[in-house]
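#structure-requests
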Amino acid sequence: MAPRILMIEDDERLAAMVSEYLATSGLQVTVAPRADRGLSLLAKGGFEAVLLDVMLPDADGFEVCRRIRAGSDVPVLMLTARGDDTDRIVGLELGADDYLPKPFNPRELLARLRAILRRRAAGPERRAVLRFGRLEIDREARRVRLDGRDRSLTSHQFDLLVALAESAGRVLSRDSLMERVRGDALEAYDRSIDVHISRIRVAIEDDVRHPRRIVTVRGAGYVFARAQDE
């Protein structure tokens, strides 16, 4: 049976184009032009993923994402005509699995959807190697690679990176990170986490001034982005 995708999008031409393209790749798309209709369809179940427009006529897409995530773990890929990094961060903070700016190439959308569906099919088992685009985190060997090259981290920093990566797409507070990482330095001083994060960014970010892997959510903590190499 073809995987069912719910697309909440008010642009009829875009929705028709996406539906037709994804259908040729074996995906069945149901389109809802309004948020209320989309949430009603989603409540009935049976969808493998949601394509969610940020700008809807009857609701803000971020609020819709929050409502979806409050009652479901169905993967959400957000679509937006706004290219602001702030929107991307907010979407990730609210639990979106991926974020694609408009206009987009349908092949890229299909590739991202397939990646989401593969992750969902793989289930929650603990994989030895976590892969996020060009970044690899080998939990058994305790090694981090970017573009195939080893990156140097201390034991505390590696544990902190793993804790973030295992909760990719979710905001983790400093207190939550302290509970997950049992190193003395992290338990003793809350602000020491910020120092460790800064050093991890030096190792894995392309531009530490504009981090795309570990993103700060002001007043809340940090989020490890699921989609990093766009």
